[in-house]
């Protein structure tokens, strides 16, 4: 299969002068994770939900202090994005995505953008939907956080590890899952920027070896349980990759948590599927 066989078309686009808030709203409206940035009919860049989560924190202070309805896309977009031609083999595209840590590649023919291939497009392909490998052979050890970890900590972990995070309850059972989408569409939902605060009540020991008691904590940063997705799609380890792919497609999600009873064994992400397709 080639790029033209699996690409999505038409492509949602914005201009470099459009605001981050406008681009983000386009992603929400059309249930997509990226838009292409076109300038005078030419591909100028690509802007993703990942840029909203991370790149704004890395820009000059003048931009970090502004609400996202006053920040142009050109400040945060990735310039000179990787592109492929319509005849590029799908396996080559999957390998390129994994190698460059990107999730979408524009398809260009004679200088004209004719579509985009995303990881979701590859997931829907016949090659991915016919994989017989059991999830036990594909799963990774999950990165876990407490459901009460702050969003500052969550963002730092996602940025460092480029991972999805599994939130757990105090007893170690599954509470939810946190992805870049959760953060991108939660933190800046009011176009005001910054991380919201909340009041939380937590179970803590007053002294080492002492009894646990509820302690009121005021104005803490928003925490994992505020943003996590729940319930989480789970599957036993003997489930086939093809069945997992179908579950991901049906639920419009990018990962499946592997469990045995109440025990979390691992996680299978879309990238694990792409690795099989790229072989």
What do you see in this structure?
The protein is of the alpha/beta class. The protein is 34% helix and 28% strand. The chain contains 13 helices and 14 strands. It has a four-stranded mixed β-sheet with strand order 1-2-3-4. α3 crosses α10 and α6 packs across α13. The radius of gyration is 20 Å and the shape is flat. The chain starts with a helix and ends with a helix. About 8% of the residues have low confidence.
Overview in brief:
By secondary structure, the chain is α/β, with parallel strands linked by helices. The chain has helices at residues 3-6, 20-30, 49-58, 61-64, 73-76, 90-100, 119-123, 126-129, 151-161, 180-187, 224-227, 241-251, 270-278; strands spanning 13-14, 34-39, 42-48, 78-79, 104-109, 112-118, 143-146, 165-168, 174-178, 197-205, 212-221, 234-235, 255-260, 263-269. It has a four-stranded mixed beta sheet with strand order 1-2-3-4.
